[in-house]
Amino acid sequence: PVSREGLRKSAQPLTFTLCFVNMALVEFEIHGQWPSVDGKVLDALLCQEYYYGGVLAEPANVVYFKIGSVWHRLALDCGAIFWRTAEAEPEAFVAQEIKAEYKIIDLGRKCGVVGSEIKAIEPMSVRRGVGVSVSFSDGRKIIFINQDDVTTYET
User: Fold this and answer.
1) pTM of this prediction?
2) How many C-beta atoms lie closer than 10 Å to residue 82's C-beta?
3) DSSP one-letter code for 111
4) What is the Cα–Cα distance from 2 to 18, expressed in whole angstroms?
5) Could you tell me which residues come within 8 angstroms of residue 97 by beta carbon, excluding any fewer than 6 positions away?
6) Other Cβ atoms within 10 Å of 138 Cβ, number
7) Alpha helices (H) along the chain
8) Sign of the alpha-carbon torsion through 155, 121, 90, 98
9) What share of the chain is helix, strand, coil (3-state, %, to 5)?
10) pLDDT tens, 45-89?
11) Cβ atoms within 10 A of the Cβ of 25, count?
12) Shortest CA distance to 72 belongs to which of 124, 36, 118?
């Protein structure tokens, strides 16, 4: 097993094998360095929504956590978790050539978690995909789930 500390120190992709209730085995990979944010205050939580042809197709295409002066970028895709750092706050944009629009929503304010202390950010198993759970010291939680190549969130 890989510890949470091991997740933070590794720059190489890590593969986990998970067993679901129905006993089907699913693997997922973690790419990038897992951020060390436990016990730190969340300054912002932004979510990039993906629209295709004017219809919301993916509510959480990319998620941005601002902790201190650093933006941490989270993307979930086809059983993989991607962590990167970003230099600036994300901006909305339109890609007319593919009939796509990317909007930014302030999920942190919408959920009332800006200024909250992060208890943990952890990978989780979900049926037909992968997830990341963000828990706060006051007991609140936001879960990002990628199933069948669509990322959503639950509060």
Assistant:
1) 0.82
2) 15
3) H
4) 13
5) none
6) 11
7) 4-9, 107-111
8) negative
9) 10, 60, 30
10) 999 999 999 999 999 999 999 999 999 999 999 889 999 999 899
11) 8
12) 36
Tokens of 108: 């942190």
The SS3 assignment for 67 reads strand
Residue with tokens 């016990």: 39
Tokens of 107: 């999920």
SS3 59: strand
Strand partners, 146: 130, 151
Structure tokens belonging to residue 38: 């436990």
Residue 22, classified by CB atoms within 10 Å of its CB into exposed (0-12), middle (13-18) or buried (19+), is exposed
Token digits for 9? 């120190």
**Would you state the structure tokens that stand for residue 27, as one six-digit string?**
């693997």
147 alpha-carbon distance from chain centroid: 13
